Amino acid sequence: MVYLLAIGSAVLYGAADFTGGLASRRAGTIPVVLLSQASGLVLLALILPLLPSAEPLRADLLWGVAAGLTGGGGVALLYRALAIGTMTVVAPITAVCAVAIPAGVALLLGERPAPLAIAGIALGIASIVLVSREDSATAPSGDLPPARPRRPGIGTALAAGVAIGLFFLCLARTRTEAGMWPLLVSRSVSVTLFVIIALAGGKSVRIPARITGLVVLCGMIDMLANALYLLAARVGPLSIVVTLSSLYPASTVVLARITLGERLSVWQVTGVVSALAAIVLIVSGSR
To answer: How far apart are CA 139 and CA 177, in angstroms?
Structure first.
């Protein structure tokens, strides 16, 4: 059940990235992120009274604040890295760092996955890199040779990956008895952070009416993904759960292929197959 929750979060994270990417093509990044984050917050606030009663401690809420700061900062850094760097370099750097931070901490705290599960984790990390690559033949061509990735983009991608990894780690440190309250606090903090960013940068937060629904859907899917990850991370081995949840790039490219008819590169097909094989190894090695 734990692994189904983690895999479900990966599918939903990928769907959120896909819908958010579509919306970002038609509106600014900050307005899309702000509205999607706010819609997820509203969804959780409406659902929370219907959930079983919870008893969060001060520590749980503080972990929620930390998750909001790291998660919100990670998203902002990621979009900045994508803007100034090369996407096929930025995406795998960020995703691999996001896995390495919580998985490394979990191992230091004493988690010892079975050898088969460790092989699955390694293959899962490799699949993230593969699925984010493109064939050179499908890359944009021109008279000039392709530019090398800019160093600021790489540094920002590393920072984004560390921040997102800390977000995963912070949520995992909350107690089961706290329910979804740490996630509510986390999202409240991140929404406030993006409001400050929008105001400080003088950015317009207006979104064309025709894509408002898509942005709201993105935020709701993302919130559901966070909820599934939180449930899985509290009861399952963090190194395994975070690896499964981080396979979301495979979900994104598959959705792009099915919905938009985008052609997958050889690297991406290999990455998707590797992700499926990693899931089999992790689940088989954890029985």
So the answer is: 49
- Rounded to 10°, the helix 209-235/238-245 angle is 160
Q: How far apart are CA 37 and CA 67, in angstroms?
A: 14
Task: Note the pLDDT tens digit of each residue in 225-284.
Answer: 999 999 999 988 888 898 888 888 788 778 878 887 777 788 878 888 888 888 888 877
Q: For the whole model, what pTM was predicted?
A: 0.84
- How far is residue 244 from each of residues 21, 161, 173, 198, measured CA to CA in Å? 22, 16, 18, 33
CA distance 206 to 28: 9
**Helix-helix angle 238-245:266-285, to 10 degrees:** 150
Tell me, letter by letter, the H, E, C secondary structure of 77-118. Answer: HHHHHHHHCCHHHHHHHHHHHHHHHHHHHHHHCCCCCCHHHH
| Residue 89 domain boundaries | 2-135+167-285
Rounded to whole angstroms, the Cα distance separating 40 from 215 reads 10
Asked whether residue 146 is domain-assigned, the answer is no
In the chain, how many domains are there?
1
